[in-house]
Amino acid sequence: MRVTFHIQKYNPEKDPKPHEEPYRIDVGHGSTVLEALMRLKNEADGTLTFRYACRSAICGSCAMEINGTEKLACKTQVRPELERHGEIRIGPLKNLPLIKDLVVAMDPFWEKIHSIRPWLEPLSHEQVDPARMRDAFTAFNNVEACILCGACVAACTVYEVEKSFAGPAALAKAWRFAADPREAAVPERLRRLQGDGGIWDCTRCNYCVEVCPKDVKPMEAIILLRRASLQSGLTQTMGSRHLTSFVDIISHEGRLNEGLMPMKVIGFRFKDFLRILPLGIRMFLKGKVPFPFKVKPAIPGMKQVRAIFAARAQAKREKP
Questions:
Q1: Which of 59, 61, 134, 216 is most buried (CB neighbours < 10 A)?
Q2: Whether pTM exceeds 0.90
Q3: Thinking of the domain 107-231, which architecture would CATH place it in?
């Protein structure tokens, strides 16, 4: 089967900007994109530059964008891609500095990983709960399977616009240590993740989950970090107040009060209130925000809604 590969090329010494070049090559039924790239380099263009190492979806080196999605080239077969998309287009990972062709600089990625202190700060042997150790790997929620390929960061819509965001891989790694029964610095770890660029900046777009080649589910790890933060009493950030205010309004009214919600989130932060006031006025004038203190008729089933919240609160009190 003869296939045309459209590959992004960029040589910083000669090219003013990246451009796409077509290459045609015969590929076998089970050929992977990485095998095709290796043949192209050997037979068509010796300057073609890309990373690879293990060829077994273990090292993560060959992560790149294939037909618009972040994938491992060694794991991605050509034929299914061609059948699904009708073409093969290959480019480097987004959101990371481009070095040459399909190679990006991973320095920003490693800086984010290092920022969450990816090492254990252990309790003494006597302090470790044996019962929790038995459930440790379940608690990790598969984050230990991460191969640090960078695909989730390349797909992250928050990191795309805000490079201060820690990113899905780093935050998933943070949960791996926060969930470890041997970790002594859990409160400090959680506090470090509350500010700008931390767990509350995630918009839950789910792209990191979709592209992860090892089913790590970074977004779920971020949600677990948020839950642990709330349980630890870290409830003063805008993100945490948004969540707790949402639950509080639903538990009392059975539905969201869009006018009251921002007031509860901001509270007495006068500077934040002034910052969103122009937007609030425009939304109010266009009928997008109801009057926050308007009494609405109770929704059908309000008693059942409150019963759900009451049962949840009782279960939390009874939990050992």
A1: 216
A2: no
A3: Orthogonal Bundle (1.10)
